[in-house]
Design a protein that fits this description.
InterPro entries: E3A/B/C-like (IPR044611), HECT_dom (IPR000569), Hect_E3_ubiquitin_ligase (IPR035983). Residues 838-1214 form the HECT domain. Its EC number is 2.3.2.26. The protein is mostly helical. Among the domains are: 766-799 and 811-872, no CATH class; 877-1091, Hect, E3 ligase catalytic domain (2-Layer Sandwich), CATH 3.30.2160; 1093-1207, Hect, E3 ligase catalytic domain (Hect, E3 ligase catalytic fold), CATH 3.30.2410.10. The chain is built from 51 helices and 15 strands. A 4-stranded mixed sheet has the order 12-13-15-14. Strands 3-4-5 form a 3-stranded antiparallel sheet, with no helix packed on it. Strands 1-2 form a two-stranded antiparallel sheet. Helix 5 (175-195) runs parallel beside helix 8 (224-236), helix 26 (568-587) crosses helix 29 (642-662) and helix 50 (1136-1147) crosses helix 51. The longest helix has 58 residues, at 35-92. 38% of the residues are buried.
Length: 1214
């Protein structure tokens, strides 16, 4: 321990050879000896340095004062000289204000002096300025100095005027004198602008910055007419620098929110709009926005000042820009300006930058320039934004691009046309995508208007909207690269951080490419939104109507949806892109989250705490931005989150996969991506990921769950008592909360990337592999719940032992006595309180109608018969209210009118609505649905196959309620026209005819309401009418909105009407089987999981995996017993129906296991039952055992076997 120990415990002497005092708390001069001279020398040097600095500071002060004093004396001398000259003129002429200068030299001399001595704070200098311009206005053209003669003097004087006006904006003393001075300054500015239009345009930033401050002040209302002249003066004259004037006007003045209120005198905003060249305004705004992101505007003035616009200013610029365009077209014909490329580009960029900061429906926005909660904006702003959402403008955007004049058919012209079309498509896509994000409640209308934008009859053979966007998408670099290689998607999805340097620089090549990629992604997402809407209203016949690449041109007699159908080869290409994109989003989700969070942290958090540089502070004071919610974004696109893209990609890909599942048109191995995995270790890896996720969920369940809203309110109340900086601290606290959520989400993605794929894109993995994973999940859950005792008997013994000391009989909760033909009611009464504990082994005792216990020990077989009997009774028609009903294919789905039927039944019984009895009855019905879900879940959990067929649209809801939960709204079940076929064939055909009707659909007198027929029993019915949308009864169905009507009708019939009963069933199902497990399968695979494979029973496979007992045991010779050979000969001769009956007789299920009879547990077994030829075969379903007498005749064996199978007498037969 002490390697330098010398044997002496005495502390060694510390020798200091440096001359420094070892005491850190000693004064500098406290050292002794030789160190005193060193310390004293240091102190003297410090004193001399201080003296030099003091003398230098004194010289600087004296020099500054002398300079100031000299300048003041010189300016005073100039003022005296200037006044003397004007006094001489006044002696010559009686009225100096109405006399002109004698010559240009005279005027220039006075101008030069005035520009040199003018003090913006001096009222006398302001009067001199007004005096000068009054005389200049009366001068002849020869006596007026021109801009080419002395422009800098006038420009300097203009800056003096702007500073003087800025100095007087907030003053309140001397109202009369102040008013005169402001009038004089405005007059002077107007005159200078008229004389120097070019220089004023170059000085537009300062000019409009000052006028913007003046607009917000209380001085404006008294002089609106004069102010308007000054405001529009730089914009009126067209010259080489007019564009710069418009840029300053845009970046400094149009960023005033509620500008219409400040200019409300005599409709000032409308008058201003009348004098603005709308084409120049759109072009200038688009040009400014094209250089940088809209929240980092760069002015092209000579100062090249970087302007960072907050959300309030961007919202104001957008509002005023839209108003000016609407005013230019007299607030009519929105298609006239929606087709303008610059208008679309400007609105698209501004809207996209505000996507995460404004809520148009709630009329609120997050102001990034202040530490406050979301603020509201007025109806004027809301009206301008809502004006963007109308059929004429959205539909007109596409029509305007298709009516371009034809170009010569040359290669160069084709290339230019292709690039132009791509650019137009990208602008339209950005505009449409942002509208969809900002107006989610009107999403279907926006998609429909865009979809119908190319079907104008006057346009003849217009190209379809889908084809227009599809052609543009196929040309993008993103689409081509990801389609070729799924690994290329990651680099294209990563967000790119943006630096904020002090000044503007020309974009580098990489930045240009990054901007192009942003536009490409917006184009791709818009096409995905549009095509998703199309698939919702497109039936299978229209979907498969084009089997090859065609022109996509509409011909006479072709429906609009059929015209928009893509060729199957194009759909294969699209599905490959979506598959590769989705794989990267889920499998590499953690890496994307890290990149996105890093980009957000570098931009948002750094800007939150950093201080602006001195030159920016001096020019445009910067305030700390409010922290925004760190939503992970794709490729750095504002408002486009990772979750949104996941949901959009998954939803569209699933819709294509469902079409392929119903009618195969893609290659067999098209959907699989097993090459990206090590399939040998795939199942163990997935099981390990599930264990990690379960462990994390268990840790979260152990933490205190405090709802976010209540926590924030309580926290705010606490902070209000101790500090005045509540908003700032609240924002920091919210930031920390969001960061914790991001860390959890990223961790889940890191520990379970394969689970992400299985739950969201399961078709990438073979079905048999997923079934094995499902059984492994169940086995893992059983081990955790039963403390390792997966065998039912062992678990019961452990439970009995653990509760013996307490005297409790816990096992009694898992035992039930069930009457024949009353299985569901008895099971509901005794097992509903168990909840998720129904997963544990249960014991059933059957009794007959005389309450006599049936023979048989439940080793699992009685439980299987119980479950199949319960499901058979519950899903069969009854004399009362049916919980499930059948479609034309005898497939089951929840009774959509069951809630209303129950209410009518209660009303007929005299039960008052809202009473306790009413609520109990309605709750009991929902609990029965929930219990049914548990029973079906129990069958899946135990691997028991039941002979039940569910409708495809109902099974889809099972598959789409799971997933990672990252994007439930987008990746959840989406009602569509084709699913209606499984519900109501007649309704499906009617809506199909409505969609393709060539005439005016208003002839049918339909509106956005639906009438339900509610059965009352005894053949009586009643009707109930509901609206599909607000004021739907007064909204007629027209040719323009019929697709929305079809979409709303499908949504109501498939989702809204059966909502409560479906949710109750799925809630019960989820208590037994985790929804994420079910999300690994599509609807047809789920049906196979429930009822087994519907293929013929493979007798050879059953024979290979059968075990024998008693005298039937195979001996050393390897030969089967003669009776066993007779049995297999009979089985091979039976038809499929009888084979299934025999299988059900032995195993209680008529179908083979999904993974073959090798997975049947216990194994199918046969043992002898004596040599009595009159004895019937019997079974022990608990062990899948067939007790077969030693028959010697094949005919007798066949008769006895079929008689026993078809008797249905339960376990007492033998």
């Amino acid at each position: 321990m002490f390697p330098s120990f010398t044997g002496n415990s005495r502390r060694p002497r510390q020798v200091n050879l440096s001359g420094r005092n070892p005491n850190p708390f000693a004064t500098p001069g406290s050292a002794g000896g030789q160190n005193v001279a060193v310390v004293n020398a240091q102190q003297e040097r410090i004193q001399r340095q201080k003296e030099r600095e003091r003398l230098h500071a004194a010289k600087t002060l004296q020099r500054t004062w002398r300079g100031h004093n000299s300048r003041a004396k010189l300016k005073s001398l100039w003022r005296t000289e200037w006044d003397a000259h004007e006094h001489i003129c006044s002696e010559k002429q009686a009225d100096t204000y109405h006399t002109s200068y004698d010559s240009a030299e005279d005027s220039l001399m006075q101008l030069r002096l005035l520009a040199h001595f003018f003090d913006p704070r001096s009222a006398a200098d302001v009067r001199r300025l007004l005096h000068y311009f009054s005389r200049t206005s009366w001068s002849s053209n020869d006596a007026v100095p021109t801009s080419a003669f002395l422009p800098m003097a006038f420009l300097k004087l203009e800056n003096h005027c702007l500073r003087a006006l800025d100095h007087r904006i907030d003053r309140t003393s001397g109202v009369k004198q102040l008013s005169e001075e402001i009038d004089a300054l405005l007059e002077a500015l107007w005159m200078i602008t008229e004389i120097l239009p070019h220089q004023t345009a170059l000085n537009a930033d300062k000019f409009y910055h000052t006028l913007a401050r003046f607009t917000r002040s209380s001085q404006l209302s008294q002089r609106m007419s004069l102010f308007q002249r000054v405001l529009i003066s730089p914009l009126r004259k067209i010259h080489s620098e007019t564009f710069s004037a418009y840029e300053g006007f845009i970046s400094k003045y149009l960023i005033i929110l509620n500008l219409h209120e400040f200019l409300n005198v005599r409709n000032g905003l409308e008058e201003l709009a009348d004098h603005v060249n709308i084409r120049l305004l759109a072009k200038a705004t688009a040009d400014v926005l094209s250089r940088q992101q809209p929240w980092e505007l760069v002015s092209n003035s000579k100062f090249q000042a970087r302007l960072r616009l907050n959300s309030r200013e961007r919202l104001a610029l957008l509002t005023n820009f839209i108003f000016f365009h609407r005013k230019a077209h007299n607030f009519t014909k929105p298609e006239a300006y929606s087709g303008n490329d610059d208008f679309v580009a400007v609105v698209s960029k501004l809207l996209s930058s505000l996507a995460d900061e404004i809520d148009i429906e709630a009329r609120t926005f997050t102001d990034s320039s202040a530490d406050v909660s979301p603020q509201s904006f007025d109806e004027f702003t809301q009206a301008q934004l809502i004006s963007l959402v109308n059929q004429e403008s959205i539909g007109g955007m596409l029509r305007s691009t298709q009516n371009q004049p034809a170009r010569p058919k040359t290669s160069d012209a084709d290339s230019v046309a292709s690039r132009t079309a791509s650019t137009v498509a990208q602008n339209l896509a950005g505009f449409a995508l942002t509208l969809l994000r900002l107006f989610p409640l009107r999403g279907d209308e926006i998609r429909m208007w865009l979809y119908l934008g190319s079907t104008d009859k006057l346009a003849g053979t217009n190209e379809s909207a889908t084809k227009f966007f599809w052609d543009a998408v196929r040309q993008t670099h993103c689409f081509r690269a990801i389609t070729r290689d799924s690994k290329a998607a990651f680099n294209l999805l990563k967000p790119r951080s943006q630096s904020l340097d002090s000044g503007w620089q020309p974009p580098r090549a990489s930045e240009v490419q990054a901007d192009d990629l942003d536009d490409e992604w917006r184009l791709i997402f818009t096409f995905m939104e549009l095509y998703t809407f199309m698939l919702k209203v497109m039936d299978d016949e229209e979907f498969f109507s084009r089997s090859h690449i065609g022109s996509g041109r509409q011909t006479m007699g072709t429906s609009s949806t059929r015209q928009n159908a893509l060729p199957l080869t194009a759909i294969q290409e699209l599905s490959t892109f979506l598959k590769n994109l989705g794989f990267t989003l889920y499998f590499n989700g953690v890496d994307l989250s890290k990149a996105s969070e890093s980009a957000w942290t570098s931009e948002s958090i750094s800007n939150y705490f950093k201080h602006a540089s001195s030159h920016i502070v001096a020019r445009t004071p910067m305030k700390a931005e409010v922290l925004k919610k760190p939503s992970l974004s794709i490729a750095g696109l504002a408002g486009i989150s990772v979750d949104y893209v996941k949901g959009l990609t998954t939803g569209l890909l699933r819709m294509i996969y469902e079409r392929d599942s119903r009618r195969k048109f893609l290659p067999d191995d098209h959907w699989l991506m097993t090459s990206r995995f090590d399939m040998d270790s795939f199942i163990p890896a997935v099981v390990e990921e599930e264990e990690n996720r379960s462990r994390l969920d268990a840790e979260d369940d152990g933490e205190e769950d405090w709802p976010g809203e209540e926590r924030e309110d309580a926290y705010d109340q606490f902070l209000q008592g101790i500090t005045s900086r509540t908003p700032r601290i609240r924002q920091v606290e919210r930031l920390r909360t969001e960061q914790r959520k991001l860390s959890r989400q990223r961790y889940l993605q890191a520990v379970a990337p394969r689970l992400e794929i299985l739950q969201n894109m399961p078709f990438l993995i073979p079905f048999t592999t997923r079934v094995q994973i499902f059984r492994e999940f169940v086995h893992l859950d059983q081990i955790k719940r039963r403390n390792g005792y997966t065998d039912p008997d062992t678990w019961r013994m452990a439970m009995h032992s653990s509760h013996r000391s307490t005297g409790e009989n816990e096992l009694s909760h898992y035992h039930a006595k069930v009457r024949r033909k009353h299985e569901f009611d008895d099971a509901y009464e005794q097992f509903y309180p168990l909840g998720s504990a129904l997963k544990e082994p249960i014991q059933i005792t059957f009794v007959d109608q005389f309450d006599t216990v049936e023979a048989g020990i439940d080793g699992g077989g009685v439980t299987k018969e119980f479950l199949t009997s319960v499901t058979s009774e519950a899903f069969s028609p009854s004399d009362g209210i049916d919980f499930f009903v059948e479609n034309d294919q005898h497939l089951l789905y929840p009774n959509p009118t069951v809630v209303e039927e129950k209410k009518e039944l209660l009303r007929g019984a005299g039960v008052q609505e809202g009473t306790t009895d009413w609520r109990n009855e309605m709750s009991d019905m929902m609990q029965r649905y929930e219990f049914l879900g548990r029973i079906v879940g129990k069958c899946l959990y135990e691997g028991i196959l039941v002979d039940i067929g569910f409708a495809g649209f109902f099974l889809l809801k099972w598959a789409l309620t799971g997933g990672s939960g990252s994007a439930p709204n987008e990746s959840g079940y989406r009602a569509n026209l084709n699913d209606l076929r499984d519900l109501d064939e007649e309704l499906y055909q009617g809506l199909l005819q409505l969609k393709n009707y060539p005439g005016d659909v208003e002839d049918f007198s339909l509106n956005f309401s639906v009438t339900d027929n509610i059965p009352l029993g005894n053949g009586r019915t009643t009707t109930l009418t509901r609206e599909l949308k607000p004021d739907g009864a007064n909204t007629p169905v027209t040719n323009e909105n019929r697709l929305v009507y079809i979409s709303y009708m499908a949504r109501y019939r498939l989702s809204a009407q059966p909502l409560h009963q479906t949710n109750a069933f799925l809630r019960g199902l989820a208590s037994i089987i985790q929804p994420s497990w079910l999300s690994m399968f599509n609807q047809s695979e789920l049906q196979t999981l429930i009822g087994g494979a519907r293929a013929s029973i493979d007798i050879a496979d059953l024979r290979r995996h059968t075990q024998y007992g008693g005298v039937y045991v195979i001996g050393n010779d390897g030969q089967e017993h003669p009776s066993v050979r007779l049995f297999w000969r009979v089985m091979e001769s039976l038809n499929d129906r009888d084979r299934a009956a025999v299988l059900k007789f032995v195993t209680s299920t008529p179908r083979a296991p999904l993974l073959g009879f090798a997975s049947l547990n216990p194994k199918f077994s046969i043992r002898d039952a004596g040599d009595d030829q009159e004895r019937l075969p019997s079974t022990s379903t608990c062990v899948n055992l067939l007790k077969l007498p030693r028959f010697t005749d094949e005919r007798v064996l066949r008769e006895k076997l079929l008689y026993a199978v078809n008797s249905g007498a339960g376990f007492d037969l033998s």
